[in-house]
Structure formats: structure tokens, C-alpha cells
Design goal:
- The structure is a homodimer.
- Chain A is an alpha+beta fold.
- Chain A has two domains: about 110 residues, Uridine Diphospho-n-acetylenolpyruvylglucosamine Reductase, domain 3 (2-Layer Sandwich); about 80 residues, no CATH class.
- The first copy, chain A, contains five helices and 16 strands.
- A seven-stranded antiparallel β-sheet of chain A has the order 12-9-11-10-15-16-14.
- In chain A, a hairpin with a 4-residue loop joins strand 15 and strand 16.
- The two termini of chain A are about 25 Å apart.
- Chains A and B meet through helix 3 and helix 5 of A and helix 3 and helix 5 of B.
Chain lengths: ~220, ~220
């Protein structure tokens, strides 16, 4: 399932829908909260990991999630509109729960408008670029990747921090980097502002209290 | 306790610290995620209610919270920096939990910079102003209040949606409106984009699943 509401600028998808499937389906000028990069596990996997390579708070872009809790219960958290009552919220703990709260069945994401988009890359490290205006940023094999969308001039300004960068056109498919699943680790080829990402699907240890919450659902 | 870190633009306070106490302590040009309006319960009460009168996602501005769960256990969720790992997150469910997860002891909020700030008011209703750029917006006795901070021109643009508005200078104290606590309801004098606010402290009903989460902490 892949359902785009251009009017309220939301996207609702089954957990298994791929990130590039979303890009292919979106009308020009609307962007999801992830870059045009295919990663294992589709949108559901991305939400479980708490996002990839973005410079904003990913959790705020996840408006709702329906998930199967470890007990087998199906939990519907959040909703399909931005203005939903922000209380008693079980959406946010699901985001970045690395599977501890179960599996995402259906996800509603906020879409954002932009007149243009650019993807550039140059040798360097994210550590050397602390204050990034670019919406997406990651590092791979010693190359920094930045993507921004918005008004043309905004985009150019946001990407000007990478002088001598080359333009990247078209989507990237990184799934072959992670045949065993995308896990958190220090030695991988791919790194974003939060984690190094390695093949194998290793997740950060689950705090005891979070495990109790997971068991309560 | 009230501890401002201008360097990383965060504020850590005890739950009982007043909203105007925070404003009085902040250096010029740094703003918390609430307007200069005193409300019952201080910062802890505000976080329990999920914010007041703002047009952004309040939960994303709450970086960490230490709270006493209904079991008596003290839970430390989140942290003091924006770049904390956004996983296994118990901060967000606390925000807007209306006391169901217990009482906030210590809270860390994100601060945002702005060169100037204005507060204006004019007769009208929030319903007539759907797309607001102003950071704070609420309605009281048929008057819309808007506050914005940022660059001077940004501020003027954000407030131009209220033609003929008068400037409000100085903070407002609304605690006398809510001697019995600030509760959700339709008949009150004060209304923001999510709720009507009434004296008496009535809270939205707690979903069963959220009550189970609360009991697990």
C-alpha cells in the first residue's frame, strides 16, 4: 500500500514499501523525510532505525504508525494529520526502537514541498561540517553526501559548504552494502550524524525500562 | 534549578520553575519553546500538557526529561544535547501525557536564537488563520495573540496576517484564569490550536494501552 495525500502533504505506506518506490510515486516538488537512497527493510525498517542521514528530528515527521507489538497486538499510534492531538503518544517511542516494540505495518509520514533539489558529494567527513543546513547528510567511503530541497537559492546556499562537490543524479541503492541487515557499528562504510552503519543488523542495547514498556504493549 | 547552556542552546530546569522565571533568566536573543505567559504548574506542567499555543511540534523541543513514574521509580529519558541518539525514546511519550506517566522533576529544553521578538493581538479567531508562520498563537476572549522571534523582517512578515493588531509588551500572567489547574475543555476563555483550556485540570481520557505503558514504568 502506498497512498499519497498531496492536499494534507502526507504519505501512508505499508512497512515493506521501498524508499525509492516512494520517490518514484511522489509528484514533483514533494519530499519524504529520507533521501533517495534504497536501504534494507523499506520505510518500516527506516522508522525502526529512527531515520537515516537527516539533519532534522526524524520522529516529528512520523505522524502515525500501526505496528505489531511483541505480544502480537496491533497498536495504532498517532494519525494522518499534522494537527493531531499530541498527547498519550506511542508513535515517537516506536521511532528508533530498532524492533524492540515490534514491526511496523503501516506508516504515515509528513511530506514537505520544495521547488528544486540537488544531491552533491565531495571528499571529507561529516565531523568537519557541524552546522549543516542541508536536509540530508551522510558519509560513505570518505565522501560526504549532501541533499537539499527548497527554493533554488536556498538549495545552493545549503550545499555551498562542500566546495568542489560533484552533482549526483539519480537515486542510490545501498541495499547490497547490508545483505545481513543494516546495523549500528563503528567499522562500516556508511555513517550518518548519529551512527556508523554496518552490515549485520546489530542494534544498540535495549534499556531495561524500554524493554518493560515493550512487554506492556 | 535553572541552568542555561548558551553554547549548546539548551535549558535545564526543575519541573516547578515558572515560565516567566525562565524568560527572566534567559540572555537576550535566546527563546524557549513557550511564549512569555505564566501558566499553572511551571515548565513541568507545560510539558505534561504537551505545550501551549505553539505552531511547531513541541515534543521535538523537549530534549530530555527526568520524571517520577506512577510506581515511584525515577526515569531519566533523553539527554541534554540535540544530537543525542534518537532511539528507545521515553521522552516523547512523557510530553503530553497529562500526568499519566507521573511528574516531571527535571526538564531539558532546546533554545532557539532570534534577533528580535514581537507580540501582537487583534480581534479574531485562530480558525481564520490556518497557516501561521508565527511561532506562538493562541486565542483569548475573542482576541488572537501571535508571537514571533527571528530576524526583524521575518518577524514582521509572520505577524502581518493580523492587520490592525496592537503590540503587547511585557509578559502575561494567566495563572489566575486556572486556580484549579489548567484543563482541556470547550468552554474556557483560552484556546490554542489543539485545545480549549479551562479551569479545573480536566485531562483527555487515557487510552488503555497508554495506561499499560504507564503501569510498566
Amino acid at each position: 500500500m502506498l497512498d499519497i495525500s498531496p492536499g494534507d502533504q502526507t504519505l501512508t505506506v505499508s512497512g515493506g514499501v521501498g524508499l525509492l518506490e516512494v520517490y518514484a510515486a511522489l509528484p514533483p516538488g514533494l519530499y519524504p523525510p529520507f533521501p533517495p537512497v534504497e536501504l534494507p527493510g523499506g520505510v518500516g525498517g527506516l522508522v525502526s532505525r529512527g531515520g537515516f542521514g537527516q539533519t532534522f528530528f526524524f520522529g516529528a515527521e512520523v505522524l502515525g504508525v500501526t505496528f505489531r507489538a511483541p505480544s502480537g497486538r496491533v497498536v495504532r499510534a498517532g494519525g494522518r494529520t499534522v494537527k493531531n492531538v499530541q498527547g498519550y503518544d506511542l508513535t515517537r517511542p516506536f521511532v528508533g526502537s530498532f524492533g524492540a516494540l515490534g514491526e511496523a505495518l503501516e506508516i504515515t509520514l509528513r511530506l514537505r514541498p520544495g521547488l528544486s533539489a540537488r544531491h552533491v558529494s565531495a571528499p571529507g567527513s561529516l565531523a568537519g561540517l557541524p552546522d549543516l543546513a542541508a536536509r540530508f547528510a551522510w558519509e560513505m567511503d570518505g565522501q560526504v553526501h549532501l541533499i537539499h530541497f527548497g527554493h533554488g537559492r536556498q538549495v545552493d546556499r545549503a550545499l555551498a559548504v562542500l566546495p568542489g562537490a560533484v552533482e549526483i543524479t539519480g537515486p542510490l541503492d545501498l541495499t547490497s552494502e547490508f545483505p545481513g541487515g543494516m546495523g549500528v557499528g563503528a567499522g562500516g562504510r556508511v555513517k550518518d550524524r548519529r551512527f556508523g552503519w554496518m552490515d549485520g543488523g546489530a542494534v544498540p542495547p535495549v534499556p531495561a525500562l524500554f524493554a518493560r514498556v515493550a512487554a506492556s504493549l
